[in-house]
């Protein structure tokens, strides 16, 4: 059930962000740059003044350029976006707090991060991580080389939450992950990272209600109505997103995950290029 103070909770994150001076710093990473683009290390302050890191790659030539903003998956290491993307887009890959390169003073544990502070929504680590995602989006809006009308968000719930809170994005490529229907899926599985929810509840059976309430602030079904931009929704299996797809207010292309980096990758590249009106995508040579 959607909490009555859902909007106030997310307004609180915005308020925390507004109280912080971002102080962005860009440092060119020459060893990672090529004639087609310059790759930078970006650091800026997010919620509670925490300094976070992101890879920020800008094509050579005259901008402004469309953007693919990669929101990270669950894991300690974030990789630099693919070479082919960096040739035609500004590419951003966020390392949220706790992930490597954003792990001072807090280094996330895997497993462990998924339930850190989950006893209450205000203490749940994903409250601050959501702020990290929004702070990078705000950085993008401030840059002259960015075409603010052509930003695509790419990822799981971190991308969805950002799309729901930042209407400037032009497209969302969303693959539901760990915060969609979490406890029900965890009750039917025994694999990590979903098993982290089960571990937490086994350790404190009385925590069921508080965990359910915390997760309700992050449940994708409650955020989808705020997303009005074109969305590609990638489903793990048939019917997996029946409860979610109807919640979106914008157009949704509902497609199955094909478990093939080639087939999923070509479809993703073509869809993003179409939505950002950026011509034919450059694909890896072994895909052509």
Topology:
Layout (H helix, E strand, L loop, with lengths): L5 H13 L6 E4 L8 E9 L5 E9 L5 E6 L12 H6 L1 E6 L29 H17 L4 E10 L1 H9 L5 E4 L7 H6 L7 H9 L4 H9 L3 H4 L7 E5 L6 H4 L6 E5 L4 H15 L13
Parallel strand pairs: 4-5, 4-6, 6-7, 7-8, 8-9
Antiparallel strand pairs: 1-2, 2-3, 3-5
Q: Could you explain the architecture of this structure?
A:
- The chain is of the alpha/beta class and 288 residues long.
- It has 10 helices and 9 strands.
- The chain has helices at 6-18, 83-88, 125-141, 157-165, 182-187, 195-203, 208-216, 220-223, 242-245, 261-275, and strands at residues 25-28, 37-45, 51-59, 65-70, 90-95, 146-155, 171-174, 231-235, 252-256.
- Strands 1-2-3-5-4-6-7-8-9 form a 9-stranded mixed β-sheet, with helices on both faces.
- Helix 3 packs across helix 4 (157-165).
- The relative contact order is 0.13.
- The model has no long low-confidence stretch (mean pLDDT 96).
